[in-house]
């Protein structure tokens, strides 16, 4: 996702950031290696334990466990499902997801564009 590494580095200074990927556990070493190479460390990482659970099922289950303030998603079907469970879903605006709309889905050009929006949500929650 465009701007993901920069945004992640900025957000983790004030937010708990958990990477939830539908990649299977068998790809953990490869995935952790990618993070070490591009991020310099491995963040908290949730990976799909079994192919018996679809990507969307896995992410929805993890959202229920984590109860996050927001979720970043690139798949429109998963974003639609997760939008019923999470206060805000950020979707990078791509042609394959232009049909997707919901009051709590926010389209961004890149993940970096979502940082001020997410930090604003965090401040608004703190003031409530």
Q: How would you characterize the overall build of this protein?
A:
Helix content is 44%, strand content 20%. By secondary structure, the protein is of the alpha/beta class. The protein contains five helices and five strands, in the order αβαβαβαββα. The chain has a single domain (4-127), classed as HAD superfamily/HAD-like (Rossmann fold), CATH 3.40.50. The radius of gyration is 14 Å and the shape is globular. Strand 1 (18-24), helix 2 (28-39) and strand 2 (44-48) form a beta-alpha-beta unit. The chain has a three-stranded parallel sheet with strand order 3-4-5, with helices on both faces. A two-stranded parallel ribbon has the order 1-2. It starts with a helix and ends with a helix. The chain has helices at 4-11, 28-39, 55-66, 76-82, 111-127; strands at residues 18-24, 44-48, 70-73, 88-92, 105-108.
